[in-house]
Amino acid sequence: MKILKFCPNCGKESLNWDGEKKWSCPNCNFTLHSNVAGAVAVVIRFGDEVYLTRRNQEPKKGKLDLAGGFVDPKESAEQTCKRELFEELQLDIDIDKLKYLTSLPNVYQYKEIDYNTIDLFYEYEVSEKFEVNLALSEISETHWISLQELNPDDIAFDSQKIFFKEYLKKF
Length: 171
Fold this sequence. Notes:
Layout: E1 16-17, E2 22-24, E3 31-33, E4 37-46, E5 49-55, E6 64-65, E7 67-70, H1 77-89, E8 99-110, E9 113-125, E10 139-146, H2 158-167
Parallel strand pairs: 4-9
Antiparallel strand pairs: 1-2, 2-3, 4-5, 4-7, 5-6, 5-10, 8-9
């Protein structure tokens, strides 16, 4: 993890990281907590197939990923699902049809900083397959993949790999 060195309160090069969740300054007693961030991941499913994206940016560029992202302030997890699916796929979903599945801890490394997250997994069943026109830089391509052919090792993030290993047992 990239370590912050300068205290944002007193400006001295004295900020200490506890290795897990907070920075503190012994000079002015400033404390900066690194709380867990909420994130959502949505399994879009049609029958025995799921719709996955391929990451076009780091972290994990080139790996498969579920649509989703970080929860914004004052936003519910379900609202995040709706916003992220529209931003990433131009897919306008009915929040009432989202099915909460589980949560798993994860670490999202971005520019040498580890962000601890709690990933909330949802399922959204569609009545027919669809394709999207990607005009966004986050995703390089999308795929409908049969659950029998899905290899969790092709998935970008550890929480999603763990999720799919359990999810696939149901099919």
